[in-house]
Write a structure and sequence with these properties.
Rudment_hybrid_motif, Dna Ligase, domain 1, alpha+beta, purine biosynthesis, 390 residues, 11 helices, D-amino Acid Aminotransferase, Chain A, domain 1, Rossmann fold, 4-stranded parallel sheet, ATP binding
Length: 390
């Protein structure tokens, strides 16, 4: 069956969607797929994964097992993913055989390597910070590039891992001993993100610009403000740059485009996520069409939905508490849900670990200030921890 469902009368389920990755993104995607009348099949190494809990079928297998990837593709009309650390080479072979895999495995392979991703942006004329390749990281190489700087591992970085920021040469022991790239450190006014959806026909829909506040210790998104507190002109420029970026790389699906708004006024693309993204979770409660439904629409050839934001929103991540691990314990849920406008998402991860993403909370209200105040209340009330002290 073709993945393009336009103008077709189809029996239920409309199609089978394979999802590589059974985490929280896959879980939320499965819910939207089934809402629209699709069946979902998940591939994940963890039995009863968060996405597997809500899907009709989970294949237990590794993301780098070509046989398992083939099994998923053969059971699916279209295959997508909720994680980037997968065997893109095996997916490229399946694509060449005629299987439908979106976004393109060729694009995924480029984005998986932070260096080739940056080179793609530069080649397409997309504004981004200065960078150089660094195959053998040494203090001398960092000094030659010039401080302050950011070192990123070419592969494997995720949720703050594989990234080090250096303001001077005082901590050479922190240099990542892997093939890397060095980037100029951007003196930021704000870190922004824009979710962009692009369909099989090239149509695009762009979401409002959001403002990201990071936990500096963990380098993980801590709080998101939607829409971002920037001028209309800045917002339009950010949306235009994000759409230009996804059109330039010929992406199909939903993409998270992370941006820097520099203090000198420059708008620069930092990184692209070729999937639904943490910065788009607010869309579930705050927008007409959320990012997960949009992904399903995009990869199946259905019309893209409205990205209009209905109310201001603030999102906070729920991370596993420090000092504990083991079976997940949720505290303060009653008190948090007693606050108007609060939506709690618990991801279904059986084990909590320090700083692990365990859920998120979105608060909607009439103003950003009111939503933010409620989000901070929830942060104090709602805790997720493991049952064992470390």
């Amino acid at each position: 069956m073709s993945h393009n469902l336009s103008d077709r009368a189809l029996p239920f389920p409309l199609a089978r969607i394979g999802i590589i990755g059974g985490g929280q993104l896959g879980r939320m995607m499965v819910r939207k797929a089934t809402q629209l009348g699709f069946a979902a099949i998940v591939l994940d190494p963890t039995p009863n994964s968060p996405a597997g809990q809500v899907a009709g079928h989970q294949i237990v297998g590794d993301f780098f097992d070509p046989a398992k990837l083939r099994e998923l593709a053969e059971l699916s009309n279209v295959t997508t993913f909720d994680i980037e650390t997968i065997d893109s080479h095996a997916l490229e072979e399946l694509l060449d055989e005629g299987f439908s895999i979106l976004p393109s495995p060729h694009l995924l392979a480029t984005i998986q390597n932070k260096l080739s991703q940056k080179q793609l942006l530069a080649d397409q004329g997309i504004a981004t910070g200065k960078f150089v390749e660094l195959e053998e990281p040494t203090p001398a190489a960092l000094a030659e590039f010039g401080y302050p700087l950011v070192q990123k591992a070419q592969r494997g970085g995720y949720d703050g891992r594989g990234v080090e920021i250096f303001h001077d040469d005082s901590e050479p022991e922190r240099i990542l001993p892997v093939p890397s790239l060095l980037e100029e450190y951007i003196d930021c006014e704000l870190e922004l993100a824009v979710m962009v959806a692009r369909g099989l026909d090239g149509a695009t829909r762009v979401y409002p610009v959001v403002e990201m506040v990071f936990d500096l210790e963990a380098n993980i998104l801590d709080k998101l403000v939607a829409p971002a507190r920037i001028t209309p002109e800045q917002a339009q420029a950010a949306q235009d740059l994000a759409v230009k970026t996804i059109e330039a790389i010929d992406g199909v699906g939903v993409f998270g485009v992370e941006l820097f708004l520099a203090k000198d006024g420059r708008l620069l693309v930092n990184e692209i996520a070729p999937r639904t993204h943490n910065s788009g979770h607010y869309t579930i409660e705050a927008c007409v069409t959320d990012q997960f439904e949009q992904q399903i629409r995009a990869i199946t050839g259905l019309p893209l939905g409205s990205t209009e934001q209905l109310k201001p929103a603030v999102m906070i991540n729920l991370l596993g508490a420090a000092g504990s691990s083991g079976r997940t314990i949720v505290e303060g849920l009653d008190d948090a849900l007693a606050i108007d406008g609060v939506a709690v998402h618990i991801y279904g991860k059986a084990e909590s670990r320090p700083l692990r993403k365990m859920g998120h909370v979105t608060v909607i209200d009439d103003t950003i200030e009111a939503a933010s105040a409620k989000a901070e209340q929830v942060r104090e009330l709602l805790k997720i921890r493991g049952e064992r002290a470390l």
